[in-house]
Amino acid sequence: MIAYENLFELNKPFHDEFKTQFDNFLQNGWYIMGKMLSQFEQEFAAWNTSKQCIGVANGLDALTLSLKAFDFEPGSEVIVPSNTYIATILSILNNGLVPVLVEPDIQTYNIDHALIEQHITPKTKALMIVHLYGKCCDMDAVMAIKRKYNLVLIEDCAQAHGATYKGKKAGTFGEFSAFSFYPTKNLGALGDGGAVLTDDTGLAQKIAMLRNYGSQKKYYNEYVGANSRLDEVQAAFLSVKLRYLDEINAHKQKLAALYLENLKSDYILPVTDTDYNDVYHIFNVRHPKRNELKQYLFDNGIDTEIHYPVAPNQQQALKNIFANKQFPIAEEIHRTTLSLPCSRWHTQEQVSYVIEKLNAF
Ligand SMILES: *Cc1c(COP(=O)(O)O)cnc(C)c1O
């Protein structure tokens, strides 16, 4: 069976270095907000060509605290793509704000910038865009709208570590960008983790306080903060893996290129463009008989995933909020998309076998 993902195989090449780092961590005897966290924060900021990095507990908190830093009036509106992972929308709701869903482009699966302006009202305060599956949004278009309406921009980079648009890294366009280090992400920890990037020193300081009970000086609290710190031990492991992130991305890109070059035309493939360097957190194809295809691949020893089976507006938790609205493009993507094996540990031979079976379907 070719698994869709296997975290043991994914991390095995790093075990020796993890063990050394873990020994260092034990020797330090410091578990929360120590020098291993500071070091990872500096390394991750530098890797992204960003000025500041603040480690937090997970990707959802990175998004939630980024919005919280602006103290928007309750009921303010935030624009967000209708086909994102639910976390992006939850971060808006958790701040007492209103998510305004905008449909994606059916080719890039990222927010359709041509539809954004018609959703902007006097209550719109921020754009929360998502670089889905590891492809950057059209940032020239997004930045033009941001400037025209003077909106805050927060980038959800949970799937886009290292993706670029016209050579500029995802996560360096907005006031804030939010990263997740969930184990399966391109840069994954051995547990939960996340980070916020920003170039603004004042905003960085505010996030650093919000993640730590709104406090800078111990036992003096300036904001209604949270406990959302990136554990020292996870930062220690992430520093090891960060050194291999370019290699991890390059391997996924090589497998993606095999799919793109060899799959028959029945499948709707991810679009490519020289302005975009995609990191293929997820390599998806679309097919009208997606469920049948998934079963067929499974019967042939190939496991796949669906990102995602249910559109956010149809989730039990959110149904009431979006009851009177329709999102046919998001629903079409959710109905037809299938994610293929494309991990750091998959071999070209395995992917060639997947291609052979796909072409015989
Ligand atoms: C994974 C993910 C998140 C949430 O990250 P967690 O670390 O699991 O909280 C947010 N947005 C997107 C697009 C994601 O893929």
UniProtKB/TrEMBL annotation:
Active-site positions on this chain: K185
Alphabetical UniProt keywords: Aminotransferase, Pyridoxal phosphate, Transferase
One Pfam short name: DegT_DnrJ_EryC1
UniProt keyword Acetylation present: no
Taxonomic superkingdom: Bacteria
GO MF annotations, alphabetized: pyridoxal phosphate binding; transaminase activity
Modified residues (N6-(pyridoxal phosphate)lysine): K185
UniProt GO BP: polysaccharide biosynthetic process
InterPro entries on file: DegT/StrS_aminotransferase (IPR000653), PyrdxlP-dep_Trfase (IPR015424), PyrdxlP-dep_Trfase_major (IPR015421), PyrdxlP-dep_Trfase_small (IPR015422)
Family: Belongs to the DegT/DnrJ/EryC1 family.
Name of this chain's protein: DegT/DnrJ/EryC1/StrS family aminotransferase
